[in-house]
Known about the structure:
Layout: H1 5-11, H2 13-19, H3 26-34, E1 44-49, E2 67-72, E3 82-86, E4 89-91, H4 96-102, H5 104-113, H6 127-134, H7 138-148, E5 154-156, E6 177-180, H8 183-186, E7 189-191, E8 199-206, E9 211-218, E10 229-231, H9 233-236, H10 241-247, H11 249-252, H12 268-275, E11 299-303, H13 306-311, E12 317-319, E13 339-341, H14 349-355, E14 358-359, H15 366-369, H16 371-378, E15 380-383, E16 390-393, E17 401-403, H17 404-420, E18 430-434, E19 444-446, H18 449-455, E20 462-466, E21 474-476, E22 481-483, E23 485-495, E24 500-504, E25 508-511, H19 524-527, H20 545-555, H21 561-581, E26 596-606, E27 612-621, H22 628-631, H23 635-645, E28 653-655
Helix pairs in contact: 1-3, 4-5, 5-7
Amino acid sequence: MELNLESLCLLHHNQFSKIDLPVSLREQALTKIIDNQYDCSNCLTIGLIRDTDPKNVDNDEILGFMQYQISASQDMRAGQDVFLIDNWFTFPLRRLSGMLENDLELLQRVEQLIGLSPLEDGCNEANGNSARVEQKTVLERIDLVHEKMWKFVGSYSLNTSYGNDDSMESNEEFEPVWYFMDHYGSHIGWSVEDTEVNVKVCPFIFLPTMASYSLMWLVKPLAAGDELVREHTYAVNATSELLRDIRMAPWNGIPEITGFPSLYEPNWLEVCTHRSEQLPLVDCQDAELRFLSESEQSIGVYSDLEDVKSKLTSNSFQVVNLDNEDVNVDTVLDINCDVIFITRHFKDFGSLVQLGKLVNQFPAEHILFCKDLLAASLRRIVAQSGSNGDGVFFPAWFQRTYNLFYELPRFVFDWKERLEKEDEPGLNLWILKPWNLTRGMATYVTNSLDQIVRMCETSVPLIAQKYIERPLLFYRQDKNYCVKFDMRIFVAVQSMKPLRAYAYREVWVRVANLEYKLEHFYQYERHFSVMAYLHGGHSAHFMSYDTFKQQMHSFYHNLPWEQVILDAHQALREMFEICTARPHPLGVYQCPNSRALYGVDLMVKWTEDNKLQPVILEVNFIADTTKFVQFCPDFYNDVFDLLFVNKVDDNKFTAL
């Protein structure tokens, strides 16, 4: 059915209201979208400005950086017109480099748009710059694009909220979409000063086709020759002048920072209240652990995890199959079973204890697997002698981490200090991670402060964690070079306090595809090792733990691998002890009917004195075991025996 303008206005009402487009301009905007009427050229001009900012000049070869100014070519009145701008190139950030590498014409257009080479109708005096760009390799040109693009891109998300409290596996569609507007839209100026702002520019999705556009309209009248300036709403909404200036850093440079910006302490009670967990009415944290006894009748297990359904084959357990699989966390306790092993957030621990059932979750365990909360739990804040600020210290097995949603000024303070003393590659290299997304979603490595600041504008809250520049590497015989690797240690927890936790002896190792070098930080296959979700998993290189150890010992003579694992186990124990040391809600709550299976990701790095140090990266709830169980088919039999029957096989587990 064809929609008329009135019904289209109703369909897009929420979007129009969110961007605050005047009602009088809404039908005009939709008409221009339907007619593909891009009309900025009728009343705007593009002019070249010589760039004199030293930070935009390459010290080695004086590679110029051109700026353009968008001006009115005639007098224009506010409220009269809305202009349609083409979001001509929309992309997921992770795929950008591959798209540019495979389409050199696209690469050239992006270079023209961000001022690395002149526009097709640009000034002759800038043409020498184009030759200097073309002398670079394709990857060097892409490096420059990633460095310079952050003044020009925009982003949006098709989701309106972050996270799903009923699912422990976060929605993978939260990764933001980035886009370049056409030359008119990309070169409109930015400001936080109300006296300078004269236009508003907002992304817009035309829902019948899901096509992406930008809409621009005047908020003040313009005279011929006036420059167009848009408001940087994200910066305007900052809670302090310093934060506002930091959010404008991609355009104005890093501001001066005096003193120590404050650190953020989570509101632990508010976090727990939001999760709506119901604790037992009577404090049972010191109660004896509840275990199930093996008998002639198998222990009933309900699980929504496919690997449990297919791989739990022990005669001691019987997976409960339901005719109606539409079970939610509010009704899961009604199922006739003894063990509940689910991926969704379980909340009613009071009823769980009363019924005598066991579940694979602890109250407040989000402290472990939410990256921002884990970092806040592990750090020590110590008053600095002779200063007004605080020092931040982390265990040797955890990298320095900042919560960018709350601690961006403190991060930039740290960034500037490192920049001033940088004397080796990678010193100011960081990895950005969402608080609560898994599988490498929306995770990036960068040494660009502009990128970090702009990525904070998206709907995905981020942490910045210090990148490991000197990792222990794995030699890939099939490629004849060394790559990064990480390892996942599965930890089965019977009790949080006192800690009764066991590390599975078989370790799941993941390796990168490209040779490790401190360059081309946008290349996922070079700087990340989780390949199972890339290209449908076809590019992932899997091996058994025994094969990994054999190849490591073959390449590194006298490698103390067993000591590395012992140190990793010690780090794991310390992590659990720290996260349970404080009472609930500041720490994980000990429930006698709770159990847990965590997948903890670690790397190994070389310290300054050339010793090997395991580093905990993150803790995963219900870690993906699809490939792992192919190498260890008895994994869930072993885990369930330990967690629920208290049968500990010392050949399979090591007590932490």
